[in-house]
Design goal:
This protein is of the alpha+beta class. It contains 9 helices and 3 strands; from the N terminus they run H-H-H-H-H-H-E-H-H-E-E-H.
Length: about 220
């Protein structure tokens, strides 16, 4: 993912390289034309010469090595102590002689659930869900104001968006959302009224044809 303020996309970097290597532009002129520094221009030229088109893609900013990172054996000891005793970073750090911040970083890196997410007697993650698709469907309705073409009052201000009138609007749409409790499949329809028109009689028309989806029972 590019930096939010990056001035060059991959296409822009390719254009800079073309201007320098193929069209004969001086690097300083090519950099000025695209609003970057001379060092940036040389960087993308070097990457193109070394790796070609692949070198112009974004790279991860994560360091290749972390000399001060805990050895794998110490991390496994922290994870084993957490699994055996189910205590927090402070108690684990006191027992193993590590800083609690270091223990917390290890637990986060290995995506260990927090203690409040676990069932204390069994140590299993507590996650409520039904056993089969269609057994329970959650329904919700969201009222959403319509936005005029060209933007609303957040862009143009309330007086201009209303055309100088005190009350003027396009009305509302109602988002009817259904989420299956087991498969987490979501289905959304937009209607101009809060009460949805009657469902079609055929279950195949009522619900999307998604693998693992079943029509809800009459009590859902």
């Amino acid at each position: 993912m590019a930096h939010p303020r990056a001035k060059l996309t991959v296409a822009g970097r390719r254009l800079l390289v073309q201007r320098v290597l193929e069209q004969g532009w001086p690097p300083a002129r090519a950099a000025e034309a695209q609003g970057v520094s001379l060092a940036t221009a040389y960087k993308w030229v070097r990457r193109w010469q070394a790796d070609g088109m692949v070198g112009l893609a974004d790279r991860s900013s994560r360091p290749r090595r972390c000399p001060r990172q805990l050895p794998a054996a110490r991390e496994q000891a922290i994870l084993a102590y957490r699994a055996a005793h189910r205590v927090g970073p402070h108690r684990i750090g006191w027992a193993l002689g590590e800083a609690h911040s270091t223990v917390h970083a290890v637990l986060v890196r290995h995506q260990v659930p927090r203690l409040w997410e676990l069932d204390r007697p069994t140590g299993q993650v507590v996650r409520y869900q039904r056993q089969r698709p269609g057994e329970l469907v959650h329904l919700d309705i969201k009222k959403q104001g319509r936005i005029p073409d060209g933007g609303g009052h957040r862009i143009h201000g309330r007086q201009r968006a209303r055309g100088g009138q005190r009350k003027q609007g396009l009305g509302y749409d109602f988002l009817h959302l259904a989420v299956d409790d087991c498969s987490r499949v979501a289905y959304l329809e937009v209607h101009p009224m809060r009460v949805r028109p009657p469902w079609p009689a055929s279950p195949s028309e009522r619900w999307p044809s998604t693998p693992g989806w079943a029509s809800p029972s009459s009590g859902s």
